[in-house]
User: Which sequence fits this backbone?
């Protein structure tokens, strides 16, 4: 019967129109006086009394709070996490990159007591502007030195600014993603919940060797 | 009394930058009044040379290129490519990896069909509501992919012989939640669109293709099943473990725009059934073969291999030739989008201007795959 189908369709749209919106406001959302007071850590009346300008802004819906997007811990992010202490400069990542955007220059460096001769890493540049975040470099790293990052807000005005130089990699906040790092998931590490991981021993597939093991390896075997 | 208006044929260039063409696609259309009398499709505007790029990359690196061919069906592209590599190199895949990639590809099939249905209705003029409903469901599936492999669209999840990493613990309850939510949503789609009189009058009997026409043009996928030809590679030539799961092939006999839409909606329900069965049959174990069996730099013996899967759009095949080195000597893709487009002229000639993009959308093409 003509018309009955239309009524059925309108029932669906009506049901959906009454539901709460599914969309998330990003990067921030507007809040009223109550939300602004919560953000400032005060009661609504206290906010009006102490910060009348803020309260007026909130009343005119000009006060916004940042929104955190729920992300999964395997998220292949935009900023690579690199542990210099674990990196030997073998350039496996550079060889495995399908686009060849990782540039590594090493020079014979000092002498490590535990590891023997080591290479100093002079250049470790990742050209994010051409990166497609496939994560094959992370999969290729035999020493778990390179990890995917967790953030994604890295827009810049110039193309050159998209290259991550080695100094930035050294100083960056280390929030490694658990992509291709089962050891993170075994110990239930979540970069968004637990924050940064600065201990380079903890990010590897093996535990930190005890002093006895090191003695055995370096004193008794030699 | 009706007056006869004399009209002259007029040729219009539609695209390549046109909001309705699902990408950069150009059609040179000749109209007589509102009626289409000639169509000349012109494509190649999104050509990126994926097949040539594959010749200078290793077998694992090519996975990243297959993601970008049909970017609403990345998991299915990965699966087709991996089947070809496994055939070429003689790799025995790990069972848990195969089950995981079946689950991933069926989820991707649902997501791809949701996009097809949503944009088909958008082409009809219902901008907004149905498209956003389908996109909302697709978003949940993309969240599952983010949980599995860290990316939503360009997954690169599969590796020769399985998948790169086991699904995390939180994936299974999340997937069950999505699968519980989906059937009522698909029922909603049915209520909203399948019984809708406006959809009936706009899509029924428009752009009818006969099975003979389609078989001559080697068209596959939901388009062929909409005309009543029972051809599904998952059933006819089972790859992976599709011979261990049971599912139905929804068929329609009309072969018009409505039938193509209807088949896609029904296939989503069948995909949910397949995922439920996979979840029961999956067993713990390794998700990819040992490194000694499948090394990083895979060097398959000299030869060639062709493997095809039932993509959400049709038969997607990868033909690889190896010369014994670390990268394929030749990689050819049998892209369903491109081949399904070959009957565009037969579909459109004689139809009206308003139905042009509806018919075009009902083919469910993806320009990334047409031009590669």
Assistant:
């Amino acid at each position: 019967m003509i018309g009955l189908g239309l009524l059925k369709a309108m029932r669906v749209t009506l049901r959906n129109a009454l539901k709460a919106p599914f969309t998330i406001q990003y990067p921030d959302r507007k809040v009223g006086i109550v939300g602004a007071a919560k953000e400032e850590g005060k009661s609504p009346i206290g906010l009006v009394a102490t910060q009348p300008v803020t309260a007026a802004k909130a009343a005119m819906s000009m006060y916004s709070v940042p929104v955190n997007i729920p992300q999964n811990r395997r998220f292949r992010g935009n900023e690579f996490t690199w542990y210099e202490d674990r990196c030997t400069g073998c350039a496996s990542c550079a060889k495995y990159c399908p686009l060849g955007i990782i540039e590594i220059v090493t020079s014979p460096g000092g002498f490590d007591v535990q590891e023997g001769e080591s290479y100093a890493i002079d250049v470790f540049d990742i050209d994010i502007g051409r990166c497609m975040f496939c994560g094959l470099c992370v999969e290729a790293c035999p020493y778990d030195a390179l990890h995917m990052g967790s953030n994604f807000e890295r827009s810049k005005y110039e193309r050159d600014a998209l290259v991550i130089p080695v100094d930035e990699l050294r100083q960056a906040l280390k929030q490694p993603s658990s992509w291709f790092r089962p050891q993170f998931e075994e110990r239930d590490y979540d970069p968004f919940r637990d924050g940064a991981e600065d201990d380079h021993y903890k990010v590897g597939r093996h535990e930190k060797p005890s002093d006895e093991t090191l003695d055995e390896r370096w004193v008794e075997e030699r | 009394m009706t007056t006869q208006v004399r009209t002259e044929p007029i040729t219009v260039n539609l695209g390549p930058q046109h909001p309705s063409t699902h990408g950069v696609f150009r059609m040179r259309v000749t109209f007589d009044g509102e009626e289409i009398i000639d169509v000349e499709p012109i494509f190649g505007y999104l050509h990126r040379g994926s097949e040539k790029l594959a010749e200078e990359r290793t077998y694992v690196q090519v996975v990243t290129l297959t993601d970008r061919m049909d970017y609403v069906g990345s998991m299915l592209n990965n699966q087709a490519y991996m089947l070809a590599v496994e055939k070429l190199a003689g790799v025995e895949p790990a069972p848990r990896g195969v089950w995981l990639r079946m689950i991933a590809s069926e989820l991707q099939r649902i997501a791809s069909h949701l996009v097809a249905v949503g944009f088909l209705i958008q082409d009809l003029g219902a901008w907004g509501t149905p498209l956003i409903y389908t996109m909302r469901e697709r978003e949940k599936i993309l969240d599952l992919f983010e949980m599995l492999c860290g990316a939503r669209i360009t997954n690169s999840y599969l590796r020769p012989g399985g998948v790169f990493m086991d699904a995390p613990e939180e994936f299974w309850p999340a997937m069950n939640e999505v699968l519980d939510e989906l059937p009522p949503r698909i029922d909603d789609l049915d209520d909203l669109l399948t019984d809708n009189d406006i959809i009936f009058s706009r899509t029924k009997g428009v752009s009818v293709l006969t099975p003979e026409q389609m078989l001559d043009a080697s068209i596959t996928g939901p388009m062929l099943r909409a005309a009543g030809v029972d051809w599904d590679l998952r059933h006819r030539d089972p790859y992976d473990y599709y011979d261990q799961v049971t599912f139905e092939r929804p068929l329609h006999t009309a072969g018009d725009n409505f039938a193509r839409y209807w088949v896609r909606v029904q296939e989503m329900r069948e995909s949910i059934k397949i995922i439920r069965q996979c979840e029961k049959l999956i067993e713990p174990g390794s998700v990819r073969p040992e490194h000694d069996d499948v090394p990083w730099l895979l060097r398959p013996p000299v030869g060639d291999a062709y493997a095809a899967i039932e993509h959400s759009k049709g038969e997607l095949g990868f033909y690889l030739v190896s010369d014994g080195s670390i990268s394929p000597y030749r990689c050819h893709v049998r892209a369903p989008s491109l081949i399904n487009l070959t009957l565009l002229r037969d579909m459109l000639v004689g139809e009206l201007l308003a139905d042009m993009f509806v018919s075009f959308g009902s083919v469910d093409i993806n320009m990334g795959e047409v031009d590669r």
